[in-house]
Amino acid sequence: MATYAIGDVQGCFAALQKLLAHIHFNPASDTLWFTGDLVNRGPQSLAVLRFVKDLGEKHITVLGNHDLHLLAVAYGKAQERKGDTLHDILHASDKDELIQWLRMRPLLHEDKFVMTHAGLAPVWTLEKARMLAREVEAVLRSDALDILLANMYGNQPDLWQDGLVGIERLRCIINYFTRMRFCHADGRLDLTYKGELAGKPQDLLPWFDVPQRVNAQEKIIFGHWAALGGKTSTANVYPLDTGCVWGNALTALRLEDEKRFSVGCA
Which pLDDT does position 266 carry in this prediction? Predict the structure, then answer.
């Protein structure tokens, strides 16, 4: 029995199958964790979504920003963007079933490790993050879904405050969970700079290097940040997005011994 956490697949079904063969995945005994962004940019988003859904209880998937974008497009609250590869899902015979399944995925999962798409806000304890994730998940699964999807895009507010209310509160939570890379020293998000670490503005820090990060003791698995190449020198953080959709690699982390496995992507 083994549990493998897998980085952003983003529609790269062939690479996913290659990785599962490499780790000798046994669906009868093993479990897969996915860091989100199952879909978009890659050529086989529909196949990925169907495969992961059919794993049933043998998988855990957290929502990523591309997954949320698919929900917004599917519910008519956003338009497809240049470079999106969602067409096959949106016109599939089982579209409604797949979208309903996707909206029920969590933002955070924990079992010795904590997994979210982009990480944990430096100012959130795990207890706080757990509470805020459930808050958004409840809306995603409710009749208020349309209102959230129509208003979740935007970079403000960029600093968490407990007093935030309404859609601004939900947007801020979603941005920390699914879009975060760099922060200021006070934990304020910067969602504009997406370049390499070496070229970052001096006032920005990777979220996991913010001073006095209150969740530094947690073992955090995340995806989203392909530019890290799956590597960081910071303890207790495990970046798994290794840029499969950009022709680099798809990576899995075996949780029992923290061994990594990777396969190249076409």
Answer: 83
